[in-house]
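Exercise 3.2. Students should predict the tertiary structure of the chain below and write it as structure tokens, then compare their answer with the key that follows.

Predict this chain's 3D structure.
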Amino acid sequence: MLAARDEAVEEKVQKLFPELNMITAGSINNHDGWVSGRAAADRAVLDTNSKITQGVP
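Answer key:
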């Protein structure tokens, strides 16, 4: 069941994003940039509802 679901997801992703390319860690040519990007992603706040309502008087 999970394999079928995984296949369905992969097909949908390919259909929605036909030019999407996956890279492996071996293709990173700027380690410092990669580390900085990962750190920024870890700090990112994706829950915008609390941010928006906090600024409203």
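Discussion points: The mean pLDDT is 82. The radius of gyration is 18 Å.
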